[in-house]
Amino acid sequence: MPTHRIAIIGAGPGGLTCARILQQHGITAAVYDLDTSPAARDQGGTLDMHPGSGQHALREAGLWDDFLAQARPEGQQMRLVSRDGRILFDAIPPEADTAEGNPEIDRGQLRDLLLGSLEPDTVRWGHKLTRAEPLGNGTHRLRFAGGTSTDADLVIGADGAWSQVRPLLSDATPLYTGVTFVETGLNDADTRHPRLAALTGHGTMMALHDNQGFVAQRNSGGHIRVYVGMRTAQDWHQQAGLDLTDTTAVREALLKKFIGWSPDLLGFITATDTGYTNRPLFALPVPHTWTHAPGVTLLGDAAHLMSPFSGMGANLAMLDGADLAHALIESPTIDDAICAYETVLLPRSIGAAEGAAEGINSAFSPDSAAQTLAHMAQHH
Question: Same domain for 235 and 352?
Fold first, then answer.
């Protein structure tokens, strides 16, 4: 493919994977991100890399060995706990080489791994896209907050749930799933919170009952990230007259919602070291498709935002990035590359999004514990 101006909007795992593989094949792509620096905000929790998607993308990017050096195979442990604190199911990964199964890695570590593999100045930090204007023949003018602009022959929307690129292709917007997570966390958990650390195990612990639950995830550095989940109105805190910045008030409101749960599980609410962050979960309508348009496409959450209960969001984003990069490398024109990529992307996205919707509806249902236990038993 001759030299083209390729603009990737968003420095998440999918966009960075795409840029890395393109660079390996001598194709330059600029990545624009609204964050002012790589350390501007917390990157979130832990990810399990799947063999056919995230792991495949890491191998294609030449980063597999670097990934193995940081991965946590013990993080694959999956535990289900009852409302009264009894362990119902505990899948402990066998002692094996890190390359087997779905080893875990922190989101921040994965992003740093990808960023470190790119040529200097590939990522243009502090570039918040405000508008993308078609100029004809597939080219677009990208306008950023602050007044700067650039033109591109290909715009890749890798800019997440609230993508500014998506409107070039689709009128779809994310919809509230009906489930909200209130995120909290434990620092130096094994020393400072040994009972909660033991209950969590080495991977992910879930306790689900009648449209409510706890998800606790081991991260590196002794941190446990906790999600207090509930099927509720998106404005539940406003209806309760609750100020989300009032840590004491949020704690008391959550404890009232979880009356009757095990004191150990309630410790995930009361023992916070990080305060509380309200996170309503959104997903794009299923199916989300669009009509091909020259010079623009989507990957990752911009294309197929889904609930985290698929466990596939970052994995699919990275696979998208790898597939799009290879389509650009192998196709005679940008238009041919987009068509080839979207032919694979769209049906794959629909299947994954349907599974994610089913997953969150099972996890937050009147018989959530039984449904989740059956699912775990089947898959482990």
Answer: no
